[in-house]
Each structure stands twice: as C-alpha cells, then as structure tokens.
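Possible regression after last week's pipeline update?

I re-ran a chain I had predicted before the update to compare outputs. Posting the input and the new output here so someone can diff against the archived version. Not blocking, just want to make sure nothing changed silently.
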Amino acid sequence: MVEIAGKRRRCIVMAVTALTLTAAAYSGAPVKLDGGNVQPTDSGTLAAPAEDAESLLGADARVVENTGDLPSPPVDIIEPVDAASAPPSGYGASPSQHPQSTVVAGAFAGSVLNESFDGKTMTGFGTAIIDDDNVYLVSGKGVNGSNAIKVNYRGNSKGSERVIVNYKLPRSLQYTLNFDVNFCAGFDFRKGGKLHGLGSANPVAGGKEVSPPRWSARSMFRRQGGLQSYIYSQNMKGKYGDVVIAKNFRFQPGRYYALTLQVVLNNPVAASNGYMRIFVDGTPVIYHGNIKFRSTESLDSQISTLMFNTFHGGHAADWAPRNANGSYKVDCAYFDNFAVSPLLEVRYALVM
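New output (post-update):
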C-alpha cells in the first residue's frame, strides 16, 4: 500500500496547482510528488475552511422524522446491470415539482467534477484533499482494487481531528454529489460525525448564524453506523440545524457504499420547496424536504461549494473514537470516486 502524506491547509487558497504522480505510484514503489508541472483538470478553487469549533446536535437541534415514505421520483436505469444488483425501478409517489433521477453505473454525464484518484494527474480537488496531514493517497484500496484516499480520524478532546476542505464549484440551483466510502474494520462510530455535502459560497457550520445567502447540506454518520442528513437553512428550528435519520440502515465497516446526495434549492426564494435526498447503493434512504435554504436571489446563495468535511463530533471528548482501554484511537476510512453533476442522477454500487 502506498501512502502520500500531505500538509494541513489552514488558509484561503484562491488557485490550486495539480500534483504530478510518478509512474512509481502504480508499481508499489515510493511515490514522489512533483508540484507545479500540471494544471488542475477542473475549474474549481478552494474556499475558506469551515470553522473547527463545530457543535453537533445541541439541545436546540431538531430531528425531523423520516417516515420512510420518500417522495422521490421514479428512477430509470440507463445502463445495463445484472438483475440481482439493479436498484428498484420506482421509488414511490413523485411530487410534480421534483424532476426525475437517472441511475448510472459510473461517471456522470455533464459532471463539473470527477475524481477517481487513478490518473497520473489529479483534479484541483484531489490535490487539495491530499494536502491535509490526515489524508493519504493509497493504491489497491479503492473500489475494485483501484486507488483511493485514506482519511485518518485521530481522536482528541473535540472528537477527532478535523479534515475540512471546502472546494469551489460553478454556481447552480441543483447538484448531485456522489462518493464511495469504506469505513475501516473496527471503526468506532462513537456518537457520530460529519460526512461530505454541498453549500453556498460561504457555508454555515459550527452553530454559526444563518444569513439570507448562507446555508449548508451535509451528511453524517451516527452512532453504531447510522446515517442522517444535517442541514443549516433559513427555516431551521434550532441553532445547530435540522436532521433526518435514515431508518433501517447502518454502515458496516470493511465494505464500500456508494452515496448519492441530491440538493435542490428553493425557487423562488420565498418558497420552502428545497430538498435533499440521500441514496445508498442506488436505494433512497433519506428525504429531507420543505427547506428554505436561502432567502435572497444573490449568486452567493447558489450551490457553489463542495464540502469535504469528515471527523468525529461534535465538539467534546465523548465523541472521540476510543481503544478498549479508553484511550484515544486513530480510526480510518477510504473514499473514492467523487463526482458532482448538475443533473439529478443516482449511482448504484460500483463494487463488482
């Protein structure tokens, strides 16, 4: 296994130069990073890091019950799949204002970002991620034995060390974010923690005050491997956002899951008709609707940030992963195949 250590980014970076990975990365030899020779393959730039001091689901947080009756549109499979692995052909009643989703097997058509970590060059997004001290490029650990990134979750008094990279995207009123995640064997979910999502130009996090153009929509892992949405919006009820918990789903460490997050902003801005949907391996598990993400038509209110956020917490020691003797431990997870598309597509499991 090849690992490439990086340096933690704690400043605003307005442009990112891609790194060149030598052919040794694919032969098992130590990898040398040679900066400055290759331009990023996408147009994104880094946004300012989100706040570290993030409280999770404080006393004011509202949990929105997930009834399991997901008002998601029918899903059309557009690529042949084995019958045993195909997602269901329909997901129940569809509100007329919700466009259809399409199930795909690989990279999205019309994507503004695709990062598989397998090429000789990476996107600016990939480059930014591995610049964090707790993120490594690894060979043979991705989906179907491909490359992936490994994130270390180092337990501490806040939960675990924050891994936060907020990456700029072209503005849009809707986006689909896909990524694959594999929590390492023995992963201690403890009380839960952050997973990735989407946000406005200046996303809200850490219990900070929402303003007309500011919002965020992320996912979270929960205790014992549960999953939930985590949204800051104009019509949230508490200081720390609203959540919808997936019923009858738990991550099992040691295998990959394909996560799809669809975020559609409220339009017009006076309406509360925005929503977030989360699918796992092509199956809908969360619908979080009636959201007023923004209350202004400004460009900064549109979706323009990919929030690569993952850590335990919360903001207290009881969120931290632990060894059997109670000491802080270092957990890990692998991530692969990040894609962002303005189309409402759903990717089913890529593991063959």
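Follow-up from reviewer: compared with the archived run. The chain has one domain: 53-117+157-347. Marking as no regression found.
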